[in-house]
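Much of what follows relies on a compact textual record of a protein's fold. An example makes this concrete, so a full record is given next.
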Amino acid sequence: MLHMRCLKVRKEDGQITLNLLKKLSLTDLSFQIEQTRAHIIIPLKKYLNKVQRDALISKLGFFEEVECEAKEMPRRQDPREILIASVPPSHSVHIPRSMDIVGHIAVLELPPELVRYGEALGEAILKVYKNVRTVLMKVGSTTGNYRLKGYRLLAGKNETETIHVEYKCRYKLDLRKVYFNPRLSFERDRVARQIRRNEIVIDMFAGVGPFSILIAKKQIEVKVYAIDANPSAFKYLCENVFLNRVVGRVKPLQGDARILVENKLNGEADRVIMNLPTSSFEYLPSAIKALKQKGGTIHLYCFSREPNSTTEALKHLGAAVDKIQGKVVDVINIRHVRSIAPYQWMIGLDLRVQPQS
């Protein structure tokens, strides 16, 4: 404990005092705020000058400057310090600066130098993150039409089914059986904010529903056809529609998006979402067929490499559009969504499609 200058105010004035002291840069955050029955006592960095004292008087009326015994705030250990301590000093530089957390699961991508220390890192993560019960390491690359990843258990319970919460939506999923990327949360929200009343949306590669369900939660007067070919993803998609109370607004469909568009959804949509970066240009003709005769918007995602990643993406788009007759496709937005590997990016393109005049 340390003897220092403090400000004593009535409890009901506590929040306004803290806000004012923050503006004046007077609160000493390295010490704990104490409470009595009727007052709170706030440690100060320095004595008040006349201007500061007058500002407090005008806002509070009553306060006292007092000498008090202040307790230091307990030091919160940096999570990276615990991770660094679990590997030899020569390897600490290789520790990833980020990881994915999906529900109760932490997912690490480790360089070869750290693989042998994976279990130790996993145990360290369990100590640091109390909401994490399972730590997995990515093994190999994303494979197959269902975009599944391989995982190795590093620490905790071998439970890969979880419920992930994002923008107040809940997604039940099993990481070993479905594709899900928490790093696309901002992109999902960005698209959902563009949806207008009475739109019909086709989510061609919906997975467990993060685009579709968020859209239906944000915009009640909407219909979303959520398509996925993976039986496991479709099962969780149906569960998540009920879990998030968007029955009727999101209609799950299982099967190949091209076939479903051709047979059921031709000319239905105001907007199409194409989150299948490895094959999006192959499916572009089907996405255009899905739009209403008057045209609409397509959100397309692809992979591209530096140094000219956006130029390369536009080149592939141009080659795909050249094969499509009777439509004008304009790029209204192009952006880097996320890095997927050194010098490789996921690119997002917002397209406006209209009939050729």
